[in-house]
Amino acid sequence: MLEPAAKTPKLPRMAREYTLNRRTSGPASGIDYRAELNDEQFAAVTSPPGPTLVIAGAGSGKTRTLTYRVAWLLDQGVDARHILLLTFTNKAAREMTERVRSLVPHDVSALWGGTFHSIGNRILRRHAEELGFTKSFSILDRDDQKSLLSGVVAALDIDTKTRRFPKADVLASMFSLVENTGESLDDVISGRYPYFDDWSAEIHRVHEGYAKRKLDTNSVDFDDLLVLTLRLFQQNEELLALYRKRFRHILVDEYQDTNAVQSELIDLLAGDGASVMAVGDDAQSIYSWRGADMGNILSFPERHSGCGVFKIETNYRSVPEILNLSNTAIRANRARFDKDLRSSRQETGVKPALVPLEDPSTQAAFVAQRMLELRDEGIPLEEMAVLYRAHFQSLEIQMELTTRGIPFAITSGLRFFEQAHIKDISSFLRFVTNRRDETSFKRLVLLLPGIGAIGADKLWRDWLKSGAAQSDETPVWSEVLAAMKPPKKAAKHWEQLGYVLDELTPGGVFAKPAEMVFSVLEGLYADFLQASFDNYENRRSDIEQLMAYAGNFDDVLEFLSQLSLLGSADGEPTGDTSERDDEKVTLSSIHQAKGLEWKVVFLIWLADGQFPNGRILEADDADQLEEERRLFYVAITRAKDELYLSYPLINPKSYSGDIIQRPSRFLDDFPKEMVEEWRVGPSWANPDDPF
Question: By C-alpha distance, which of 212, 245, 238 is closest to 130?
Fold first, then answer.
């Protein structure tokens, strides 16, 4: 019997190697990089592949460097689909992509460019199932997020009526800090919201319930777009390898503003093989309060072996007199890369002005008058800006510009008297002076826990029935309110409201406006602020500034009339404004001004406790003080031609009396020879004045 022939063993099939030839022709764009860039920019743009850190000083052409780097890569034969460009704003991403398109003839449609969040969204849309979501997940905006959180709180049956629990907006900010800083929820509460320590257990339950509700509803918030993308790569090595192969060249704009999640995401994608270029300026790292960590840029060379470091120190914005001042000021910081910006412009002989002034009103008068003089000299209003550390510091400026008919635009928030918390406070004063003011009544009672729109309507009807609205005599508020029937959960706060209103009209007469504001704040409203807003301290400062302003009035009716006039005409000149609408002075916080520039900058309130911030001085926090100094640096470097540094010598306080202010310690960081001190006084103080 024949035995079957032995089977020939199959050999493993070998993949055929095939190499795509890289294009070797000269730059298709025809760009003369040596001619288009200065030496520092050229060195960074044409640097070899590998990890690279570019320290680009203020006004040094950072965006130009990044744009030409992309063009250079394309001209070297890099496929656009292997480039990832990460920015912090959609506008920056669009501008850079459009500039690249105008520079090179290559098709750049395959280039991935956008904000960290938009890139995270793009990745998650492809792989959401890996994390328990579907590709059609919804992205919650802030209002959606607040609504979902409110639902979680309600479902957990937390009693938010008899004792104030943080509102959804505050909870959202807490949870965002946890995600963006890597801090525990307990640390966030104790460090930033200590007044909610008693609610810690309930806040933890809400945090857990919120995460579950998002998964159940196939929804993510903006922080999740980063956190979930990072988790995706941490849990799936094959997927990470796929994207590492895709993104061989990673470019990051404003790297000093990255938080823990963003930095880890970049490091993870870069691995050991990608060419990652981080561009930023450690001296402009000013966002730690929202999770940014300057340590990311300082430690970048240590985390990326063989990292090349390039410095771009030629400034095209400011005159040497301003730039030299900024260089000297920032040297007082210890945590920084050493660099020395050089101006491309000629000296003008005009030093920055140091202007001490009597009080905030005099400071505002000086700024307004100097603006009009500069305009007469040919500088348009839109080339002038007033910068400040905190929004409330713009109050006197807003009033002075309004009085003089100088149009202005505010980038730091609503006009002072349009802000919700200012309107809340004034509603108490309006109601006690006009007891038939339904709008003010409902606004103030809606601030109380346990009272909604229906309850406010019923209470208004009860108020009218009481007869106190029509009486000529001022009521004893606590007695009249005690006879009304608020919802049971609001009873405690309703009683407190009566006591507060009594303080506004002691003995049946109106208290002084400043005393009224103080009574409302301390008697009732401070608790509401803490529970409702994540920027409680800033809003409280606004109200304290309102209190100081109210100190100028003895008559509450006159004070309220002034608020109404400023609220309606705030910053808008009367009459035909068609020819003047485009010409407006800018009022801005320094944080909002980052990235912008003007010919003339007025930097106001340079006094210790105002700038640097008083809470930071009290905490004696060296890192936070250095960030305040970086904020000072950012403000200085917004000015192109002229810079005015001013501070009031006296800060009027309605209860503690006038406070003599110490000039900001930042003014000690440079020799006095670098500035010209101005002595400002009224015209009648001039001995040469014939009058």
Answer: 238
* Active-site residue identified among 638, 640, 641, 661: 638
Percent of the chain with pLDDT over 90: 56
- 159: how many CB neighbours lie within 10 A of its CB? 11
Hey, which bits of 477-608 come out as E strands?
A: 585-589, 598-603
CA 308 distance to own-chain centroid? 31
**Active-site choice (75, 223, 254, 628):** 254
Cβ atoms of 532 and 420 closer than 8 Å = no
In the set 36, 46, 63, 458, the catalytic residue is 63
- Would you place residue 9 in the very low, low, confident or very high pLDDT band (cuts 50, 70, 90)? low
Instruction: State the residue for tokens 């700024």.
Output: 367
Nearest to 606 by CA among 621, 627, 628, 637: 628
Q: Is 338 a catalytic residue?
A: no
Task: Based on the residue annotation, tell me whether 62 is a catalytic residue of this protein.
Answer: yes
From the candidates 169, 179, 223, 253, give the one annotated as an active-site residue.
253
Say which of 52, 284, 363, 398 is annotated catalytic: 284
Q: Is the dihedral angle over the CA atoms 426, 430, 433, 439 positive or is it negative? A: negative
Q: For helices 116-127 and 222-235, what crossing angle results, to 10°?
A: 60
Q: 638 an active-site residue?
A: yes
Which whole number is the average pLDDT over 307-329? 96
pLDDT at residue number 163: 75
Question: What are 329-376's pLDDT values in tens digits?
Answer: 999 999 999 999 999 999 999 999 999 999 999 999 999 999 999 999
Please state, in angstroms and rounded to a whole number, the distance separating the CA atoms of residues 581 and 575.
12
Q: Is 63 a catalytic residue?
A: yes
* Residue 512 annotated as catalytic: no
Is 577 catalytic? The answer is no
If DSSP codes are grouped into helix, strand and coil, which group holds residue 660?
Answer: strand
| Confidence class for position 149, pLDDT limits 50, 70, 90 | very high
- 40, 41, 52, 62: the catalytic one is 62
